[in-house]
Amino acid sequence: MFWSIVGFFVIAGAWLLVYSFGYRVDWQTLQISQTGGLYIKTSPKITDVFLDGENTNKKSGLLSTGIFVQDLFPRSYQLKITKEGYFDWSKKVQIEPSLVNNFSHVILLPQSPLKGNIYEATSTIEITDFFPLENKEEILLETKIKNKSGWFGALSLFNNKNATTTEIFRKKITSTESPDLLSGFVLDDSNPNQIIFSDYNRSSGQTIFYLWDRLDPDQTINLSQAASAYNLTKIRKTDFYPFEDGKYIIETSKNIAVLDLNRKEKSFLAAENPLDFTISGGNLFWLDKEGGVYSYNFILKNTSPLAIIESEKIEITNWAVSVNSSSIAVLMKNNELLLIRSGQPVKIISLAAQNFSFSPDNKKLAYQEVNGQVKIYFLEDFNQDINKKLGEEVALDGLTAVASSQISWFKDSYHLIVQGGEKIMFAEIDDRDKFNIFQYQFGSGRYILNGEGVVFRSWGSLLEKINLIISE
Q1: Out of 30-44, 345-359, 419-433, 437-451, which region has the weakest mean confidence (pLDDT)?
Q2: Residues 84-113 as b or e (16 or more Cβ within 10 Å = b)
Q3: Which regions of 186-344 does DSSP assign to beta strands (E)?
Q4: I want to staple 466 with a disulfide (CB 3.0 to 4.6 A). Which of 108, 320, 455, 460 is the partner?
């Protein structure tokens, strides 16, 4: 009797030790296996989580940011996450012994997004272009107006909060013309006091640049005319000089100048025959007609050569610098997509690209090829839920839009928003099993996307705001 009791406690103790190391009996196979787990973080937070069709009854709450499902035997499971009024999210997941499989970027989108008109003009006014400012309250509106005097193009600043409109500029146009006042505009910051915009003058055949200041809204300065006093003519592009008021970057076909209207002087950067320039952080980057790529540091005031693009003819469709200024992407007119990083050879990412976008975390480059296929190129090693090495690519199967006009990142750098024609697609980049892609069709019009999951659409005299992300 004594030894039987001792044996019982020995066996029980051994079993408790085994249990403490994560081993369980799989009653389906009658085998003892070390278990694993799942960590799931969803938006919205309150969702139903199913494994192989059974509700886990696990929910996140005010004190917990995610859901932990433990004691899962090593095998594949069908994971499904649902919420009433939202599209389902599902994926086949693999559980490994003693490991936790993370899904910390699960976003469910509503079947019926929040929509609302934020601007409605009269029947004699057509919205031809617009741009929402980052302060989320103001929108630049380009409109085409018909009245008794004829046709006019106008640029206005609309305040959505108090429903007021401030007209910045107006010009006479023909009935077949578009105002085209926002094609070259720039802001002095994300919540601007000043705006530079351009207007093509038909009589002179030149683009005229103007400066508008909200502190003096009734007076618009002809920046091209001011620059001509310093022999800066035939201006192709302008921008604000960072950190200093009254200074502007002026690009002509021959050089890039710095115009200081306060000190009434000009200087030149070491740029000859520039093709284009852009400003990122504390640096100015430019391409020249020989294929040279350079940067100028506004603080140190020095110029650095970055790369040479080897091509018989340097013609570009678009180019951009990543947020941290570590990478440059150049889309050539022959559809080559080039990646430039300081000290490294120019790399051809694609021979058939039509657009691209850097992720906010600077770790990924999304691009779309002419056949509509969307791909992700990893700029560095990535270990957040999915593990990717520098230079790896992921093709987002099921995400195609041949007529796509925009490809944009959601703010988490884990999802893409793609607009093609009348369709908006919201897609994860997690290539474990299938991609979860949510699709909407809102109709024709001009679209602008942002990293908050907000879509703006204009058509005719209406401007609409659509919230794809609805938080609890």
Answers
A1: 30-44
A2: eebbebebebebeeeeebebebbbbbbeeb
A3: 186-187, 194-201, 206-213, 220-222, 237-240, 247-251, 255-260, 265-272, 274-280, 283-288, 292-297, 302-308, 316-321, 328-332, 337-340
A4: 455
Establish if 66 belongs to a structural domain: yes
Distance CA(111)–CA(281), nearest Å, equals 38
- CATH code for position 98: 2.60.40.10
Q: Residue 321: its pLDDT value, please?
A: 97
| Burial call 339-357: b when 16+ CB within 10 Å, e when fewer | bbeeeeebeebbeebbbbb
Is 387 domain-assigned? no
Banded pLDDT at 223 (limits 50, 70, 90) = very high
Q: What is the largest CA-CA distance in the chain?
A: 112
Phi first, then psi, for residue 344 (nearest 5°) are -120, 155
Distance, in Å, from the CA atom of 327 to the CA atom of 154, rounded to the nearest integer, reads 37
HSE-up (13 A, CA, CB side) for residue 131: 19
Residue whose C-alpha is closest to residue 209's, from 221, 219, 217, 218: 221
What pLDDT is stored for residue 28 in this prediction? Answer: 59
Instruction: Tell me whether residue 29 is in a domain.
Output: yes
Q: What is the C-alpha separation between 441 and 155, in angstroms, rounded?
A: 29
User: Which residues, at least 6 apart from 41, have a Cβ–Cβ distance to it below 8 Å?
Assistant: 60, 65, 66, 67, 103, 104, 105, 106
Residue 442 in domain:
no
Question: Which residues span the domain enclosing 42?
Answer: 20-107
> CA-CA distance, 172 to 166, in Å (whole number)?
18
In this predicted model, what pLDDT tens digit does every residue of 270-327 receive, in sequence order? 999 999 999 998 899 999 999 999 999 999 999 999 999 999 889 999 999 999 999 9
Residue 269: what are its φ and ψ, rounded to 5°? -85, 165
Cα–Cα dist 448/77, whole Å = 39
Q: Which two tokens stand for residue 196?
A: 């530079």
Helix (H) / strand (E) element for 241: namely: none
- By DSSP bridging, strand 36-43 and strand 100-107 are parallel
Q: Domains in the chain: how many in total?
A: 1
One-letter amino acid at 265 equals: E
Contact residues for 122 (Cβ-Cβ < 8 A; gap 6+):
461
Helix, strand, coil: what percent of the chain each, to 5? 5, 55, 40
CA–CA gap between residue 357 and residue 365 (Å, rounded): 6
> Taking 50 as the threshold, does the pLDDT of residue 220 lie above it?
yes
Share of the chain above pLDDT 90, in %: 78
